[in-house]
Design goal:
With 833 residues, the chain is α+β, with helices and mostly antiparallel strands. It has 15 helices and 16 strands. It binds adenosine-5'-diphosphate (ADP) and magnesium ion.
Length: 833
């Protein structure tokens, strides 16, 4: 496969970053002294590299000077590797990645991505390119795929050319720089997601970006392929400086283990004398086997801090670089030969083979000769011609691989030679050698298988861990669910108990139903028998029905006639009723003058109306009765008043008689009075005469004393006589006057009463007249009402009769309808059956 091969040393480039802010603040000294392009001296000691970049070197300068060539090499079919080595924060990531999307600040990887495609576009059109990239990191000697987070522990295998590669690593085909950048972004994002402290993590893990370019010439079918590893190593500082303890310390040791195995590999390669290069000590060294002393053009950036604070680390870094500088790689183009080329090669190889066979034969004969000599001399242990083990066991080449056919181009390599390092020479036969070889191969195979297994197991473990977490979550939720479910269960059990009871009942009911069912079955049988009979009967009935239907149609006709008639009658009735209502005086009741609708409706209206009239009549009758009562009362009152009147008249006549007698009496009294007055006058005259006589007697005093005395006595008697009736008269007069006054009072009183009675009489009379007129009026009304009532009764009777007839008609109609419907249903049933 490999054709043109060339040996070359690893290129080592040294880059110093500027002092950072905290170093300046701390007042650290700037220790490196740059001499020329390739030398830097620290504390008086000079270190020479292929190139030394002072602090002010731009990213572009770095790229153009060193990395650009590598792109060309890779596109030319060589393998390439760029390492960045140095302590944490010495500028490794800055150099490899830089600011990914900043045209000035971007580091080597983004520039390479761009450059590759620029080259490709400028190359022969007949070339077809397949570019794929992978991105992974190595942490604690586990390879983690950054493009697929599920792949956490990938294994390293060897391909058919015994070149190690990461098995199962995600490969992305890319066709533009943007796609490459996308992949880098994705990988970086995944890296960030996986860890908590990115700075710490990135300083302890190696990140490797792999670009695999395959090209094929469309016409010649010539195939070339080149791999480019871009490696940002973990910080090279010693553990003590970071102050790690416990688990972190273990981790640091582990990380340092991979770095120290890198150092060991480099040392072994640098010394060049050691036969064994410990590539297999760590996965990283295995992956980079070709990059270190193998088929690869390798560039190593040694990143350093300029601060006096880091001088020890800087020195050891520089030493490391010096050692690495001595490693020699044999880079060859990875060319897949075309048929023509193969043919040539075959011829060449055939020729080689022939020559080798010749040599073998020659050697064999020589050997035989020697053996014979040996037998003669019996010197078997310290024989100068014995094949030393190192020569017979095929030495691992610098890549740890068994030598390929072409590498041992000269058969003379197996010629016996003196080796100072192997004082004890053990003879082993060809067979044994092959056996050992086979065994070693087997062991390596087993190792790879184990690696594979470990990877699978760890993947499984990761998966199981995830599953565990999921399961735990599920468990928690399940617990909650289970509580819910148990409560639900309790409820359900209760429900189920209830349901069971219900079911029992239902079962009982079912049993009953079953019994019933049996009975019913029996019944059904009976019924079916009956049915048959009935069916026969039905047939008869059907005939009958036909007749009835005819009858029905006739009846319907009749009924329609009747309906019409009823409607007419009803109309008449309604008219009567409305008239009646007019007569009764209830204007509220309004009757539809035209009755044409359904008879039932009309009837209801009529009924309503009649009931209204009924209530009206009732109220009227009541009123009549009230009026009659009132009349009776009036009569009674009138009689009473009449009686009172007659008694009053009697009283008046009595009083009149009394008045009359009193008047008479008064006249008598008047007469008496007059008599008495006359008497008084006559007596007064007598008195005057007597007075005259007395005066005469005085004149004649002596004349007759006796007479005088006699006359005085007479006078006194007379006076006495006169005096006594006067008094009685006066008394009588006063009494009479009193009597008169009294009588007059009585008369006045009686006159008053009489007057009042008269008035009362007048009033009663007028009342009586009024009542009489009222009575007359009421009697008239009553007569009218009685007349209406009678008419109403009559119409009611008529209506009742009518109603009855209509009801009868309706009933018959209804019956007919029923029969008709029954017949229809049976017919329908029969049709369905
Ligand atoms: P490492 O990857 O080695 O741990 P970084 O590349 O992350 O270190 O660099 C640490 C810091 O120093 C970053 O902030 C980076 O920008 C800065 N830095 C490193 N090298 C340079 C340089 N050559 N010029 C300017 N700044 C630099
Ligand atoms: Mg870094």
């Amino acid at each position: 496969m490999a054709d043109a091969s060339a040996e070359c040393n690893i290129k080592v480039l040294c880059r110093f970053r500027p002092l950072n802010q905290s170093e300046i603040i701390r007042g650290d000294k700037f220790i490196p002294l740059f001499q020329g392009d390739d030398t830097v001296s620290i504390a008086g000691k000079s270190y020479v590299f292929d190139r030394v970049f002072p602090t002010n070197t731009t990213q572009e300068q770095v790229y153009n000077t060193c990395a650009k060539q590598i792109v060309k090499d890779v596109l030319g079919g060589y393998n390439g590797t760029i390492f960045a080595y140095g302590q944490t924060s010495s500028g490794k990531t800055h150099t490899m990645e830089g600011k990914l999307h900043d045209p000035h600040g971007m580091g080597i990887i983004p520039r390479i991505a761009e450059d590759i495609f620029n080259h490709i576009f400028a190359m022969d059109e007949n070339l077809e390119f397949h570019i794929k990239v992978s991105y992974f990191e190595i942490y604690m000697d586990k390879i983690r795929d950054l493009l697929d987070v599920t792949k956490t522990n990938l294994a390293v295998h060897e391909d058919k050319n015994r070149v190690p590669y990461v098995k199962g690593c995600t490969e992305r085909f890319v066709s533009s720089p943007e796609e490459v950048m996308d992949v880098i972004d994705e990988g970086k994002a995944n890296r960030h997601v996986a860890v908590t402290n990115m700075n710490e993590h990135s300083s302890r893990s190696h990140s490797i970006f792999l670009i695999n370019i395959k090209q094929e010439h469309v016409e010649t079918e010539q195939k070339l392929c080149g791999k480019l590893y871009l490696v940002d190593l973990a910080g090279s500082e010693k553990v003590s400086k970071t102050g790690a303890e416990g688990a972190v310390l273990d981790e640091a040791k582990n990380i340092n283990k991979s770095l120290s195995s890198l150092g060991n590999v480099i040392s072994a390669l640098a010394e060049g004398t050691k036969t064994h290069v410990p590539y297999r000590d760590s996965k990283m060294t295995r992956i980079l086997q070709d990059s270190l002393g193998g088929n690869c053009r390798t560039t190593m950036f040694i990143c350093c801090s300029p601060s006096s604070y880091n001088d020890q680390e800087t020195k050891s870094t520089l030493m490391f670089g010096q050692r690495a500088k001595t490693i020699r790689n044999t880079a060859s183009v990875n060319l897949e030969l075309t048929a023509e080329q193969w043919k040539k090669k075959y011829e060449k190889e055939k020729e080689k083979n022939r020559m080798m066979n010749e040599t073998v034969q020659r050697l064999e004969s020589e050997l035989n000769r020697w053996m014979n000599d040996e037998e003669d001399s019996e010197l078997d242990q310290l024989c100068p011609g014995a094949v030393p083990l190192e020569c017979l066991i095929p030495r691992e080449d610098s890549l740890g691989r068994l030598p390929r056919e072409e590498s041992s181009s000269s058969g003379l390599s197996r010629l016996p030679r003196e080796d100072s390092s192997s004082s004890i020479v053990i003879r082993i036969s060809e067979e044994e050698r092959q056996k050992y070889e086979e065994e070693i191969r087997k062991l390596y195979k087993q190792l790879d298988d184990k690696d594979d297994e470990i990877n699978q197991q760890s993947q499984l473990a990761e998966k199981l861990k995830e599953q565990m977490l999921d399961q735990e979550e599920l468990l928690v939720s399940s617990r909650g669910d289970s509580e819910k479910v148990s409560s639900e269960l309790g409820r359900l059990q209760m429900e189920s108990d209830i349901a069971k009871a219900e079911v029992k009942e239902v079962l009982q009911a079912l049993e009953e139903l079953a019994v019933n069912y049996d009975e019913k079955c029996q019944e059904v049988e009976d019924k079916s028998l009956q049915n048959k009979l009935l069916a026969e009967e039905l047939a008869k009935k059907m005939a009958h029905l036909m007749r009835i239907e005819a009858e029905l149609s006739r009846l319907q006709e009749v009924s329609s006639h009747q309906r019409k008639r009823i409607a007419e009658v009803l109309n008449g009735l309604m008219r009567d009723l409305s008239e009646f209502s007019a007569i009764v005086g209830n204007k509220d009741i309004k009757l539809p003058m035209e009755i044409t609708g359904a008879i039932e409706e009309e009837f209801t209206v009529a009924r309503l109306y009649i009931s209204k009239i009924k209530s009206e009549v009732k109220s009227m009758v009541k009123r009549c009765r009230q009026l009659e009562n009132l009349q009776m009362e009036c009569h009674r009152k009138m009689e009473e008043t009449g009686r009172e009147l007659s008694s009053c008249q009697l009283l008046i006549s009595q009083h009149e008689a009394k008045i009359h007698s009193l008047t008479e009496y008064m006249q008598n009294i008047e007469l008496k009075n007059r008599q008495l007055e006359d008497n008084y006058d006559s007596l007064s005259e007598e008195l005057a005469k007597l007075h005259a006589q007395e005066s005469m007697s005085e004149v004649t005093k002596g004349e007759n004393q006796a007479d005088i005395e006699e006359s005085a006595d007479v006078k006194r008697a007379l006076v006495q006589q006169m005096e006594s009736p006067r008094e009685t008269h006066h008394k009588q007069l006063g009494r009479l006057r009193d009597d008169i006054n009294e009588k007059q009072k009585i008369i006045d009183d009686l006159t008053d009463r009489n007057h009042r009675l008269h008035l009362e009489l007048e009033r009663l009379r007028s009342d009586f007249d009024r009542l009489r007129s009222q009575e007359h009026h009421k009697t008239l009304q009553l007569e009218e009402l009685t007349f209406i009532h009678e008419r109403h009764e009559q119409s009611k009777q008529d209506l009742k009769g009518l109603e009855e007839t209509v009801a009868r008609e309706l009933q018959t109609l209804h019956n007919l309808r029923k029969l008709f419907v029954q017949d229809l249903t049976t017919r329908v049933k029969r049709v369905r059956e």
